[in-house]
């Protein structure tokens, strides 16, 4: 699975315009961070983004990644997703979707399904508050991890 080039270009445009709109200069570092998050569908955490951005910008700091992603997330252009107690991960896919998460390797894959989008909320939720969106997280063992187990035993 990979993000189509046209979609990557669209995201890069959207994110860079947003940063400029915040009065931030589009430094080489920031534009590389944007490129990395725009082209991935792997939901990286800050540490993984850092490793990837460092390949083209060796001087980038973890803090710059944190702050840039924080700005983009606060603007609602990337979403923060977390799995259990793991680190916050970032998602530049703005389309409505759900996730499959591997509990062994942490793989997180996008799942689009209109029936899930229409998922009815249990009535008792109305006593707690108003539901604005529903995101389903399927947890299990991915094919790669499952194959690995079979080879070992
Ligand atoms: Zn896995
Ligand atoms: Zn996603």
Description:
The structure is a single chain. This protein has helices at 5-21, 28-39, 46-56, 62-74, 114-117, 125-128, 143-152, and strands at residues 79-81, 89-91, 98-102, 108-111, 137-140. By secondary structure, it is an alpha+beta fold. The chain has 2 domains: 5-81, Winged helix-like DNA-binding domain superfamily/Winged helix DNA-binding domain (Arc Repressor Mutant, subunit A, Orthogonal Bundle), CATH 1.10.10.10; 95-152, Ferric-uptake regulator, C-terminal dimerisarion domain (Dna Ligase, domain 1, 2-Layer Sandwich). It has a 3-stranded mixed sheet with strand order 4-3-5, with no helix packed on it. A hairpin with a 7-residue loop joins strand 1 (79-81) and strand 2 (89-91). Helix 2 crosses helix 3 (46-56). The protein is globular.
Q: How are the elements arranged and paired?
A:
Elements: H1 5-21, H2 28-39, H3 46-56, H4 62-74, E1 79-81, E2 89-91, E3 98-102, E4 108-111, H5 114-117, H6 125-128, E5 137-140, H7 143-152
Parallel strand pairs: 3-5
Antiparallel strand pairs: 1-2, 3-4
Bound molecules: zinc ion (2 copies).
Mean pLDDT: 92
Beta-strand percentage range: 5-15%
Query: Radius of gyration from the CA trace?
Result: 18 Å
- Cofactors and ligands present? zinc ion
């Amino acid at each position: 699975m990979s993000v189509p080039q046209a979609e990557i270009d669209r995201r890069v445009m959207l994110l860079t315009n947003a940063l400029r709109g915040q009065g931030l200069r589009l430094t080489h570092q920031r534009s590389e961070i944007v490129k990395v998050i725009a082209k991935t569908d792997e939901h990286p955490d800050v540490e993984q983004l850092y490793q990837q951005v460092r390949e083209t910008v060796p001087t980038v700091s973890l803090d710059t990644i944190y702050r840039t992603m924080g700005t983009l997330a606060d603007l609602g252009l990337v979403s923060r997703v977390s799995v259990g107690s793991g680190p916050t991960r970032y998602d530049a896919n703005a389309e409505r979707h759900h996730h499959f998460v591997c509990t062994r390797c942490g793989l997180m894959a996008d799942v689009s399904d209109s029936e899930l989008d229409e998922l009815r909320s249990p009535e008792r939720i109305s006593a707690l508050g108003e539901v604005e969106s529903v995101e389903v997280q399927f947890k299990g063992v991915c094919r790669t991890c499952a194959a690995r187990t079979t080879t070992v035993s």
